[in-house]
Amino acid sequence: MYLVSDEQIEFILNNIKQRGVEMEDLQNNLLDHICCILEQELTEEQNFEIAYEKVIKQFFNHALWEIEEETILLLKYKNYYKMKRFLYILLFVSIGYNIFVLSKLSYDSYKQRQQVNEWESLGKITLEEGFADFIEKVKTDHPEKLTKEYYCVNFIGDPMSDEESEWSAYRHDTAQERKAKLYRLQEYNSMDSVAGIYNKNIVHFFAFRGSGKNIDKHIQEHTPLLKNITLIKDQRKLLSGLCNEAKTDIGFVSQLVVIDKKGKLVYRCKYLTNQHIFLSKFLKTLTTDVK
Amino acid sequence: MYSSELIKGTLKTIVLKMLAENKRMYGYEITQKVKDLTGNKIQITEGALYPTLHSLEADGILITETEYIGKRVRKYYSLSKEGQSKSKEKVNEFADFMNTMKFLLEIKPA
Question: Is B76 part of the contact surface with chain A (CB cutoff 8 Å)?
């Protein structure tokens, strides 16, 4: 077996370098490979340089550095694909995150809008049907009350809940009539002006409709201000039918609560048997109890 | 001898299989082994082998150790743990591919 000498090794290594291969790792691999071939194929009689030239030409089509170029290309492409994959993952994650955030935002705003709609429309209806007279009376008899920041009137509850319909004048209506009525109730948006006047001076005045088990849930959902109030569930009376001249039923109220700006309970009316009792009681409270 | 296109597509699988069966090998050894096993039908060119070995090493599929043979350095390649499963995966994939090709080419003879 032919043995490649140290000088020949040096010669081959230099030649590999001259042929443009710069990666040391690759130089060593090629050197060993060439030596192996030479040692296998060469005989002592043959000329080393001629044999080397023959062997080295097997390694490439045009130039030896093509091997290095191919190596670099493979390594580069690997990184390129890794980077591409990473970017794709990043893209999908960020799209997913954005969808999540947007849907959460839109859900929150939908929920909020839903609450506001229910809150405002019902609140305004209560003002109009149940408490408009009362507010007028406060305005004429106790104008000083409106200069203090006391109350605003609101009404919470679910007009379509089954339990409630048992008590309200909805109970003889067909589902379709209820729907129509509900729609009408929701059209009271023009009441903004009424609510607006009082909102300026009145802070919170809640009328609870009796929604049975649901009422606690409603209170929790709708107003954190009310969390300390104990409901008296058995005091359910039809309010609007009595308050309203046309005797149009819009629901019923189990109790009325007044809360000041800081969320402190200042008035609770439990006996909403008729408008006058309610009004006089409430007015009395306004003039005597509220500090 | 098979065309270089065919060899190119299967080179990785060949290298991984060789290393799975022979604990550690150096470049020349791989080419010789394949040549012997296939009766000269598959001759791996150096120009294709080394880029593939370097790339597999960069991937962590192969691990290397070097030894001095006189004045020159010999680099031995062996499968990493990941490489062992990769080797099986590649061989299985190719076996499946062969079956598919067999089926495909038999029902649609050229």
Answer: no
